[in-house]
Amino acid sequence: MIIFKYKDELDEDSVRAAALLCVILGVSTFISHSLVPLLVLLCDNIVSFFLTPKHSFLTRFSKITILPIANFRTKKISANAKHFALLLAIITESIIILFLFNGYILFANTLLFFLIFFALTETFLKFCIGYYIFNILSLKGFINEELSDDCLLSFNHNH
């Protein structure tokens, strides 16, 4: 059983802006087949996961550059679900880097396409795959978490 105990909450603005930067870095990796943008994204996600997202340089950069341009609505989301989504992103990015490093470009491009697609859905459609996977696993008892009840209630009202 996995236990998530993060207490801080994130605003949806910074999450969606960071997802848009994930799209930009993913597309640049997809076009150039360079590991540098993906390594930057992986390091930033690791910093966000082990520290708080307030220490993330991509989140800070996106708050300065993207948030004044985009008109995202502010809504608090559970930090537990976001940290679980970050864990899924770290695993996916690590697998993509291993595929690119070993020369499996087709597999890496396929996974990178899905990573870009999921970041786009999070940015523009407000649909986070990791959030729903986290809620399904927590409702089934695979994850023991200390969430506020509004996270689980919002999941129950959506389905």
Automatic annotation (TrEMBL):
<keyword id="KW-0812">Transmembrane</keyword>
<keyword id="KW-0472">Membrane</keyword>
<keyword id="KW-1133">Transmembrane helix</keyword>
<feature type="transmembrane region" description="Helical">
    <location>
        <begin position="17"/>
        <end position="42"/>
    </location>
</feature>
<protein>
    <submittedName>
        <fullName>DUF4395 family protein</fullName>
    </submittedName>
</protein>
<feature type="transmembrane region" description="Helical">
    <location>
        <begin position="111"/>
        <end position="134"/>
    </location>
</feature>
<dbReference type="Pfam" id="PF14340">
    <property type="entry name" value="DUF4395"/>
</dbReference>
<dbReference type="InterPro" id="IPR025508">
    <property type="entry name" value="DUF4395"/>
</dbReference>
<feature type="domain" description="DUF4395">
    <location>
        <begin position="11"/>
        <end position="137"/>
    </location>
</feature>
<feature type="transmembrane region" description="Helical">
    <location>
        <begin position="84"/>
        <end position="105"/>
    </location>
</feature>
